Amino acid sequence: MALEAGQPEVAAGYMDRLDMDWLFSGRHLGLLLEWRERLPATLLESTPRLISLSARALLFSWRLDEAHQCIERLGNFLPQPQAPRNRRLLANWLALRGALDGMHGRLEQARDHCNAALEDLEARDWRSTLLCLTTLARLDMATGSLPQARRILQAALELARRQGCLASEVLIDFDRVRLCLLAGEREQARSLLDACRERLPASGEGHELLRGRLAFLDGELRLLQGDAMAAAAALEGGLGLARSCADPYILHGLLGLGEAASRSGDAASAQRYCEEAERRMHCWNVQPDCYRLSLESLKLRLLARQGQWLRLHHEATVLDGELEQRPERVAPLHTPSLPQRVRYLLALAEAGCGRIDAARARLLQLREECQALGYQALAGEAEHALNSLRIEIAPERLPSLLPTSSGEAEDSAHGLTAREVAVLRLLAEGLSNQEIGNSLFISLNTVKTHAKKINVKLGVRRRTQAIVRAKSLGLLG
User: Fold this and answer.
1) 369-426, pLDDT tens digit by residue?
2) Taking a C-beta distance cutoff of 8 angstroms, is the pair 346, 301 a contact?
3) CA-to-CA distance for 163 and 31, rounded, in angstroms?
4) How many CB atoms lie within 10 A of CB 180?
5) CB of 304 within 8 A of CB of 312?
6) How does DSSP assign 322-337, residue by residue?
7) 411 strand-pairing partners
8) Sign for the pseudo-dihedral over CA of 162, 165, 166, 171
9) 411 φ, ψ to 5°?
10) pLDDT tens for residues 11-64?
C-alpha cells in the first residue's frame, strides 16, 4: 500500500521489520522480488537487515549474481563500532557468503565460510545458523558423506522446531527426502513427504511455495515408482503454485513433466517442457550453475530413448569432460548425483555404438563410485545395466535400461526382464534371497516376486530347474 501511495521510504521501513520466515509463506518471495524492482537501491541498502532480507530472497531465487552484489554491500556496514556487534554482523555475512559459494559449487570456500560463521553466530541468529547447516548438509550429500548430512539435517530440524518455524522445518524435511532418494530409501522418502503434507494445511496459512515444492517431490517419487500419469498430475499441480511465487524449483516440475512425456513416447512434448524450463530460468534471471546440468541431463535422456547413440555419445562426452575439468566444484546442491547420471548415460551411448567393453568398464567404475558415495539407487541402476550387458542386449533395446512408465524394464528376448535376469544370475551363484536383495538394493519381498515370475516365464517350479533352463537358453553364459 505504501508503494502504491508513492511512499517508498515508508515501504522500506515496513520491509525492514519483516521476519525472514515471511519469505517462505504465501507468495511472498515473488512479492519481495517485485518490491526490489520498484524501490530505489539507496533504500534497499539502508540497513543491514534490509540487505540480508534481499540477499536471502535472491539466494532462494537462484539469482546468484545479484545475491553476490547484495552480500558485498553488507560489507559497507563493517566494521561496527563495538566488537560484539562487529563479530555478529561478520558472522551473518559469512553465512550468506557460504550459502552463495555452495550454490556455485565452490566446496572448500563454502565449508570454510559456513564453519567460520557457526563459531560466532548468536542464538538469536538461528536463521543464519540454519542457512549454514543446510548448506553444509547439501555439500555432504554432493560429496557422498550421507551419514554426516543426516546428522547435520537432524540438528537443523531440531533447531527449526524449537524456534517454532514450520516453513524451515518443512524445507529441511525436503532435504531429508532428497537424501533418502539418494540412498535408495523410497519408503522413508514417501513417509517424510506425507508427514510434510499433513503439517502444511494444519498451519492455517497458504504456503504456496512449500506446497509447490512438495508437489514436485511427490511427482518425482511417483516417477521413480513408474507411475508416469500420477507423476504428471502431481507435477502439473505444482506449476501454478511455483509460478505464483517465482520459485525457481519450477525447473524440477517442468523437467519432471518432460521426463514423464519422454517415458510415454511423446518426445515433442518433452522437448517443449525443456524449452519452457530454459525460458523460465532466463526470464527469472537464474544463474546457469543452478539449472544447466539438470536441463542437459534430460536432453541426454531424450536422445537415449530415441536411440540416437552417436549424438548422445558426443554430447555426453562433452558434458562429462566439462565436469572433469572442474574437480573442485560440486554438482548443484538440489541435484547432487547428476554428474554420475551423465556418466551412466555415456555408458549406454558406448553400448549403443557397439563399444560394449568400454560400457561395461564405465558401468563397473560407476557402480563402485556410487556405492562409495552412498548413492545406492544409482548403484542399483548401474548393476542392472551391467547384468543386461552381460547377455549382449541389442542396441535397440538399450532404452529399456532407462526407467519406464511401468517401473520395470522391457522384456528380454526370452520373456525375462533385465532385473529378472540379474536375480537369476545371482541365484545361479548360490546366493540366498536376502543376499540377492542386498546385492541389487531391493527388498526381500521384491526378490521373492522376481523369483516367482522367473519360474512362471521359464515354465518351471523350482529355482534349480530355473537355473538349468536358463543355462540351456544361454542366459547365464
Assistant:
1) 999 999 998 999 999 899 888 776 777 778 878 876 544 444 443 567 666 777 887 8
2) no
3) 25
4) 22
5) yes
6) HHHT-TTB---TTSTT
7) 417
8) negative
9) -65, 145
10) 444 555 566 667 777 678 888 888 888 777 677 777 888 889 899 999 999 999
